[in-house]
């Protein structure tokens, strides 16, 4: 089970995402627009963000600065803008709304694999064993 931080500006969509994440066997941690403090203290394994929301790209960038290993999932009505990659915001997966439970599960699995691969790379660089 992974902790999944959800930043979705629309409360009804956020509640639906919470239920979907829980149905997939993960622990949803849902907030509309998390503060930097919440991003730091969430201890999340994956962050689902809506970059089309006014604060979405800012939150994705803040999450990347706080924890470069935290995989991001784009869940949006549009593909992530290419300029986000210029800011260091790379998504482990992207979902176009509406999406199915199966598609969300696949995106979370991809994000968790990306997190595990990042941990292995960092361990090999530092010479310490990986926890994943």
Keywords:
132 residues; Rossmann fold
Strand content: 15-25%
The number of helical runs is 5
Write the element-wise H/E pattern from the N-terminal end onward: EHEHEHEHEH
**How would you classify the helix and strand content by structural class?**
alpha/beta
Q: Span from first to last CA?
A: 14 Å
Query: What best-fitting shape do the alpha-carbon axes yield?
Result: globular
Spatial order of strands in the largest sheet:
2-1-3-4-5
Count of discrete domains = 1
User: Which fold name fills CATH's third level, the topology?
Assistant: Rossmann fold
Task: Please state the oligomeric state of the protein chains shown.
Answer: single chain
Mean pLDDT: 86
- Proportion of residues in helical segments: 40-55%
Query: Stretches where pLDDT falls below 50 for ≥5 residues?
Result: none
The total count of strands amounts to 5
CATH-scheme architecture: 3-Layer(aba) Sandwich
Q: Which class in CATH terms?
A: Alpha Beta
Query: Rg from C-alpha positions?
Result: 14 Å
Please name the fourth-level CATH homologous superfamily. Response regulator
Biggest sheet details:
5 strands, parallel
């Amino acid at each position: 089970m992974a902790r999944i931080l959800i930043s979705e500006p629309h409360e009804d969509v956020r509640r639906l995402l919470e239920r979907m994440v829980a149905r997939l066997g993960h622990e949803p941690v849902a907030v509309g627009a998390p503060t930097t403090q919440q991003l730091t203290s969430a201890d999340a394994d994956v962050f689902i963000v809506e970059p089309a929301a006014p604060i979405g790209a800012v939150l994705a960038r803040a999450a990347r600065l706080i924890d470069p290993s935290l995989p991001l999932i784009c869940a949006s009505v549009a593909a992530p803008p290419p300029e986000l990659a210029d800011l260091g915001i790379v998504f482990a997966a992207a979902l176009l709304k509406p999406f199915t439970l199966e598609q969300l599960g696949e995106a979370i699995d991809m994000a968790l694999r990306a997190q595990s691969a990042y941990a292995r790379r960092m361990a090999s660089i530092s010479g310490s064993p990986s926890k994943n």
